[in-house]
TrEMBL record:
GO molecular function: phosphatidylcholine lysophospholipase activity
PANTHER family membership: SGNH HYDROLASE-TYPE ESTERASE DOMAIN-CONTAINING PROTEIN (PTHR30383:SF5), THIOESTERASE 1/PROTEASE 1/LYSOPHOSPHOLIPASE L1 (PTHR30383)
SUPFAM superfamilies reported in the protein's UniProt record: SGNH hydrolase (SSF52266)
UniProt xrefs under InterPro entries: Ester_Hydrolysis_Enzymes, SGNH_hydro, SGNH_hydro_sf
Domain SGNH hydrolase-type esterase, residue spans: 111-256
Protein name: Lysophospholipase L1
Transmembrane annotation, as ranges: none
Length: 281
């Protein structure tokens, strides 16, 4: 049974409204179901799913009769990737610039990639002076480059998570651990109590990464003992079966609100200690 009815031919689909109405386990599940439905009804998926950019680029690139089909597809992917990459780096650069320019002291800093950035930490923890320094798409290499934006906040504690984007890009576990080592050095050298949170497991769609995630977390745990910092196993609360469950994720990678609430319950007691200490001073 299909999750929803597809609009009549020629109408565009509002994914935000559809997601809100359908409430699937993930956006990927919804889109996959939608594509099947479109094919059954012989509806132009490119028009309906707003893939016109790809279609137009393909037509332009394939207009040269001398080009091989594989070459056209390769150049299409390359061109669209350039567009996506440029857009991503524009946003990334802007975020880093803002973090460097607008500095205000915080008791707690959250540091990581999109999994951190998309967490409603400020809303969930309104009584804690907290700054969210997650940036979508970031890697441990990028986090190392911008770790000074954490130091400039003069936080007492930082909660750090990263590594999944590195693994997806083919970085080795040893490379990632090496960068964690350097990040921890910078933070502890500046007297910031550091909490390394386990890299989250992912769902079925990206399950090939989970053995690497497990290996990374095992080595991070050992690293934390050696560096005398705390390792927090967030996976025990969110991914006890070694994968991110569908009812805790929107897409098999990013946690949903239910997951963030569980995560909050794990770290809030540590943060609340900060408030009690401040009240006693």
């Amino acid at each position: 049974m299909c999750l929803f009815e597809v609009p009549e031919n020629g109408r565009k689909i509002d994914f935000v409204t559809m997601y809100d109405v359908v409430r699937p386990n993930s956006m990927h599940e919804m889109v996959s179901e939608l594509v099947k439905k479109l094919k059954c009804q012989n509806i132009n998926a490119n028009e309906t799913l707003l893939l016109n950019q790809a279609t137009k680029e393909y037509e332009i690139l394939s207009s040269n009769e001398c080009d091989e089909e594989e070459d056209v597809v390769f150049r299409l992917c390359e061109k669209l990737n350039i567009t996506q990459t440029a857009s991503f780096f524009s946003r990334y650069t802007q975020a880093v610039q803002c973090h460097r320019e607008f500095v205000d002291n915080a008791d707690i800093a959250m540091f990581g990639d999109s999994i951190t950035e998309w967490g409603p930490w400020v809303e969930m923890l309104p009584n804690i002076k907290l700054k969210n320094r997650g940036i979508a798409g970031d890697t441990t290499k990028g986090m190392l480059r911008r770790v000074e934006t954490i130091v400039s906040l003069s936080p007492n504690k930082v909660f750090l998570m990263g590594g999944i984007n590195d693994l997806a890009m083919g970085c080795s576990v040893s490379e990632i651990c090496g960068r964690f080592d350097e990040i921890i050095d910078v933070l502890t050298r500046n007297n910031i109590e550091t909490f390394v949170q386990s890299t989250l497991f992912v769902g079925n769609r990206l399950s090939h990464l989970n053995p690497l995630v497990a290996e990374l977390n095992a080595k991070l745990s050992v690293l934390c003992v050696r560096k005398n910092v705390t390792f927090l196993n967030v996976n025990e609360a969110l991914c006890p079966q070694g994968r991110l469950p569908s009812d805790y994720s929107v897409d098999g990678l990013h946690p949903n609100l239910c997951a963030y609430k569980e995560w909050k319950m794990l770290i809030e007691p540590i943060m609340q200690c900060e408030i009690k200490i401040a009240d006693c001073l």
